[in-house]
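A reminder before we start the practical. When you read a complex entry, don't treat the lines as separate problems. The point of joint prediction is that each chain is placed relative to the others, so the output describes one connected object in space. Small molecules and nucleic acid strands, if listed, are placed in the same frame. In the example below there are two entries. Take a minute to note the order of the lines before looking further.
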Amino acid sequence: MNTAIDIALTVNGETVARRVEARTHLIDFLRLDLGLMGSHAGCEHGVCGACTLRVDGVIVRGCLVLAASLDGAVVETIEGVSDSGEIRDLQDAFVARNAAQCGFCTPGMLMAAADLLAHARKPKRDEIREAISGNYCRCTGYQAIVDAVEAVAKARVFRG
Amino acid sequence: MKAPPFGYVRANSMDHAFRLLAEYGEGSKVLAGGQSLLATLAFRLSEPSLLIDISRLSELAGITRQDDFVRVGAGTTHTMLGRDSLIQAHVPLLNDAVPYIAHTAIRNRGTIGGALAFADPAAELPACCVALDATIIAGSSRGERRIRASAFFVGLFVTALEPDEIIIAVEFPVVRTDERSVLMEIARRSGDYAMAGVALWARVDGLVLHAPRVVFFGVDDRPVLASGAGTALDGKRADAATVELAQTALDRDLDPPGDQHGGPALKRQLARTLLARAVAQILTQDKVARA
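Here is the predicted structure of the whole assembly.
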């Protein structure tokens, strides 16, 4: 029986090929095999949202995806969307509003917020709260995070 | 925690999946979206020797209208269910249920087949299937078999599936113009499993409900069809007195065990509250939007 699986996938635009243990989830693969430490492993059973990232264009829980199942997939992590500048305004707003304290939830929070802003042109505060309801933050009390996301939504509308 | 070691095979066809399942039997598990299975493996609640990945099988994809039914492929994700125009028009209860199922990142991978096979007693889709009298189509190397939803959920995380069977699709009756449905639940955090929830289907004529199907979730080891409450509501003007009779009937319909949220008395109170709210909502539902 195969417990070591060969996969080839795209991570932040680069093709990588590796042999992975079947039980390895995507976050451990990124952190331990590829050295991409931006995606965080928190609860590792799909509750906390710290591992939120993109697979094939949609956000997923990285801890609930097996690396072995991702042959041919396109993975985008916080490193990728940071380098591309895609979420620069969100990151700036998080800094300006003090929406990150310890920072553990921040990569997942940014990925979830970016997904909301990609689908909703001008989300209301309760919609923002709903969109990040799957992402735990134990520091900020969420208010500053909602402020930051709302500010970016308004700025993007203004900018067109 | 980390999952225990296991083998992994991606099935390249339905027949391939059936063969693997027949060969490896109960030591194997079928991996669909993995949104419940991988969490339970992290807890080491089971230690399968092999995961059979069916997530990319085209045979399990697609939502199609067939006469008086909408057939939903087992591999349909919750996100797809929530966006599909056939579902919105003909099985609106499923569309209404989707926002309650976990969070966007989980809905993007979790599938209807996986949710039904996992059979969490607090999950929304099993209750919807019972309320809508859906038919679950199970396949194996022996052929296909049709199972009514009311006979499918047989215990805590236990279904009528045989060890060599995989859910292929679910068939839902197309909603008729006088039919309405409502889903609501009470949870501590948006997207968490419900402390209690209800799916209500009925034919509605003015203020009268006909042949209602009241199904609770999160109150027992499986979805519970509250037949006493249904009888109390059937054919009567759904005023406060009728609702109170139906709530009283719940005392016999339900026998909730306590869980991490609270004891039986809390579950009974939540069920009574949900029933009253669901009846009120089904009476005021916009008919034009559903027609």
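Discuss with your neighbour: The two ends of chain B are 49 Å apart (CA to CA). What might explain this?
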